[in-house]
Design a protein that fits this description.
8-stranded mixed β-sheet; binds magnesium ion; Rossmann fold; binds guanosine-5'-diphosphate
Length: 455
């Protein structure tokens, strides 16, 4: 019998990351059989936490990174869009830069999946190795500035939101920056919060930057109000998360400004401390990510099994109908031929034997044709049945998770279902025959690990 496992418990001599790898390895066979791709299948042992900077261009992402790194500027800054790359700033004694495939090579294993987004993205991956103290505890990730909805026609050449989602899953802290010029109005920022960042709000921090730009409290209140208003529409959650109002020292303070910047200093220190202590969050983030991944696999397998079994039942009854129908037609044909044509008793002499054989062959051929037609009709029926089940995926989910949903305490299930449903629908349509009907205990083992990692 398998012993129950948790991320921490099974092998205390192993690190958290190694235990995560073991968990993934244990369930990889089940995932493969059900054509499920893990979201975060690789966790590089003992890698540093990542902090991802998002926001519209010129919201101050790169300036904030330079501020954190202290010393000479590492990132280019400017009012105009200066950067279209995802830049990973890592610690190292020998300072160097790399772009494209060479940069990807330098990144930990878990980030290599960026390769799947295609060459347009790979060319925009940049690595900067710098010998700065803050990088001993954290990897900083700068991103291209988000653009407006009106600029949608401009293609980035790769799935920008897919990359944001991938990075949001891997990173341990996501900072979304806004500035007074675009207080939450940038199309891509709004879309990112509505889409790829959903489910990661626990690690998302909202920063209202450049607060030194306001000339008066009234000016600030108006922009802050606009930001809250826009966020209320963009964030699919009931409570507005904390917004860190801050600015970077040493920039041009608005002329004649009556705003006292001291409170903003405190909030900046708070967010800087959070960035520096991201390591403490990493273990929790990994546990949440692994639990979510395994829970999605469980959901994928349970609903897929349910539908696969229903289709298999339909398939078996179609096969039975095909076999029964063909045999019946054949038997009826032979009986009729026997009664109306040359019967078995009359099959004497060359002529009669020849005619009897011809008549039997005719019945066999006709039965074959009828069987073939029946086969096509029944196969079409099974296909239609499958399409119907796929169209009713939500019903299957509700029935499969009826017990858990009836408790009313599992909001997370709907979130996982939103992730699982589209993948499952495509898979069922394209490869339902490849899906197994039995799980041989693998699902039970998975369910045990899901409940252990969720604690
Ligand atoms: N007044 C003021 N300007 C800032 C602040 N942070 C950044 N900037 C300026 O905003 C411009 C855009 O900054 P940058 O870091 O390149 O933005 P990014 O496009 O988001 O990386 C630069 O000219 C910065 O000097 C701030 O806190 N206050
Ligand atoms: Mg920048």
């Amino acid at each position: 019998m398998d012993t129950p496992s948790t991320i921490e418990a099974p092998a205390p001599e192993l690190s958290l990351d190694e235990n995560v790898q073991r968990l993934y390895a244990r369930h990889r066979a089940l995932a493969d059989r059900f054509c499920y791709t893990f979201r975060r299948s690789t966790v590089s042992p003992n890698s540093l936490p990542y902090v991802l900077f998002l926001g519209n261009h010129s919201s101050g992402k790169s300036s904030f990174i330079n501020y954190l790194l202290e010393g000479d500027s590492v990132q280019d800054v400017g009012i105009a869009p200066t950067d279209d790359a995802f830049t990973f700033i890592l610690h190292g004694e020998n300072e160097r830069d790399a772009v494209g495939p060479a940069a990807l090579e330098m990144l930990p294993e878990e980030l290599k999946q960026l390769n799947d987004f295609g060459p347009e993205l790979v060319q925009r991956v940049r690595v900067k190795v710098r010998n700065r103290d803050v990088l001993k505890n954290v990897v900083l990730v700068d991103s291209p500035g988000m653009i407006d909805a009106s600029e949608k026609s401009i293609s980035r050449g790769y799935d920008f939101f897919g990359v944001i989602k991938f990075l949001a899953e891997i990173t341990d802290l996501v900072l979304m920056m806004f500035d007074p010029d675009k207080p939450g109005t940038t199309g891509e920022a709004v879309e990112a919060m509505k889409g790829p960042l959903t489910g990661f709000f626990f690690k998302l921090r909202l920063i209202f930057n450049k607060c030194d730009r306001f000339s008066s409290m009234y000016d600030y209140a108006r922009a802050y109000g606009a930001l809250c208003w826009n966020l209320a529409h963009a964030l699919p959650i009931k409570d507005l998360p904390k917004i860190y109002n801050c600015y970077l020292p040493g920039r041009a303070h608005a002329e004649g400004s009556t705003i006292d910047l001291h409170d903003f200093d405190a909030l900046r220190d708070e967010i800087v401390n959070e960035i520096k202590s991201a390591k403490a969050r990493r273990a929790d983030n990994i546990k949440v990510a692994v639990n979510k991944d395994l829970a999605c696999l469980e959901m994928h397998v349970r609903v897929a099994l349910r539908i696969r079994r229903a289709v298999a039942r339909r398939q078996w009854s179609a096969r039975a109908m095909f076999a029964g129908g063909t045999v019946l037609f054949l038997a009826a044909g032979l009986l009729v031929a026997n009664a109306c044509g040359i019967s078995l008793g009359e099959a004497h002499g060359w002529r009669n034997v020849f005619l009897f054989c011809l008549q039997t062959l005719g019945v066999l051929a006709l039965s074959g044709l009828v069987g073939f037609a029946l086969f096509r009709i029944l196969r079409h029926g099974v296909r239609r049945f499958l399409e119907q089940q796929v169209a009713e995926l939500d019903r299957h989910f509700n029935e499969e998770y009826n017990r858990e949903l009836s408790l009313g305490t599992r909001d997370d299930l709907h979130q996982y279902w939103a992730l699982t449903q589209p993948v499952l629908a495509g898979l069922l349509r394209a490869r339902w025959r490849d899906l197994p009907i039995f799980h041989w205990g693998a699902l039970t083992r998975l369910q045990r690990d899901v409940s252990c990692t969720g604690k």
